[in-house]
Amino acid sequence: MLFILVISMTLSAQGFPKPYLTKHFDYDTFTFKTRSDWGSKPATSVRPLTLPVPYVIIHHSYTPPACQTSDQCEEAMRSMQEFHQVTRNWVDIGYNFAVGGDGVVYEGRGWTNIGAHASEYISVSIGIVLIGDWVSSVPPAHQLQTAKKLIAKGVELGYISRNYKLIGHRQVKETECPGQALFNEISTWDRFEPNVKRKS
């Protein structure tokens, strides 16, 4: 009972909506850091996703650049959130999750909240950003593998449809993202969908 009370008080003090608190022990195949772990600011509002989602959308951050250490990747997360909230006036960091060059998954908007990463597809997708510029080079193998493990965990937990379609950001918006090299890479992954249509 005391443990539950402490968690509840922590949430209240930090102002994070409950869906953002994701248990560490759910993630046994990779390291997972919650919003509080990387020092996020509170979201100003949240909108729930209808689950399970039928799409997973892959992004690159371009800037900030690739990070290799926990300190670098946590700083990258704070930098992206600052840019999204302050410069773009979004309610939070745009992505549901990020994967760093340290092989760690970083919680963004989480499994249950609509992101701001792919125009009309945000209400039907989980957006995953691989931190770095992947125009001409592919992310390290351990970063790619962690992204795949995250997707598999989302399916296992029921947040992502077992029949999901994997796409790159450029397929639903006029953008270079997720970088040509990374796009070429994900086009070889299971459940990649080459023929998705833009909604506008």
Automatic annotation (TrEMBL):
<feature type="domain" description="Peptidoglycan recognition protein family">
    <location>
        <begin position="30"/>
        <end position="173"/>
    </location>
</feature>
<keyword id="KW-0391">Immunity</keyword>
<dbReference type="InterPro" id="IPR002502">
    <property type="entry name" value="Amidase_domain"/>
</dbReference>
<comment type="subunit">
    <text>Monomer.</text>
</comment>
<dbReference type="GO" id="GO:0045087">
    <property type="term" value="P:innate immune response"/>
</dbReference>
<dbReference type="InterPro" id="IPR015510">
    <property type="entry name" value="PGRP"/>
</dbReference>
<feature type="disulfide bond">
    <location>
        <begin position="67"/>
        <end position="73"/>
    </location>
</feature>
<dbReference type="GO" id="GO:0008745">
    <property type="term" value="F:N-acetylmuramoyl-L-alanine amidase activity"/>
</dbReference>
<dbReference type="InterPro" id="IPR036505">
    <property type="entry name" value="Amidase/PGRP_sf"/>
</dbReference>
<dbReference type="GO" id="GO:0009253">
    <property type="term" value="P:peptidoglycan catabolic process"/>
</dbReference>
<feature type="domain" description="N-acetylmuramoyl-L-alanine amidase">
    <location>
        <begin position="41"/>
        <end position="179"/>
    </location>
</feature>
<comment type="similarity">
    <text>Belongs to the N-acetylmuramoyl-L-alanine amidase 2 family.</text>
</comment>
<keyword id="KW-0732">Signal</keyword>
<keyword id="KW-0399">Innate immunity</keyword>
<dbReference type="GO" id="GO:0042834">
    <property type="term" value="F:peptidoglycan binding"/>
</dbReference>
<feature type="signal peptide">
    <location>
        <begin position="1"/>
        <end position="15"/>
    </location>
</feature>
<dbReference type="GO" id="GO:0008270">
    <property type="term" value="F:zinc ion binding"/>
</dbReference>
<keyword id="KW-1015">Disulfide bond</keyword>
<dbReference type="Pfam" id="PF01510">
    <property type="entry name" value="Amidase_2"/>
</dbReference>
<dbReference type="InterPro" id="IPR006619">
    <property type="entry name" value="PGRP_domain_met/bac"/>
</dbReference>
<protein>
    <recommendedName>
        <fullName>Peptidoglycan-recognition protein</fullName>
    </recommendedName>
</protein>
<dbReference type="InterPro" id="IPR017331">
    <property type="entry name" value="Peptidoglycan_recognition"/>
</dbReference>
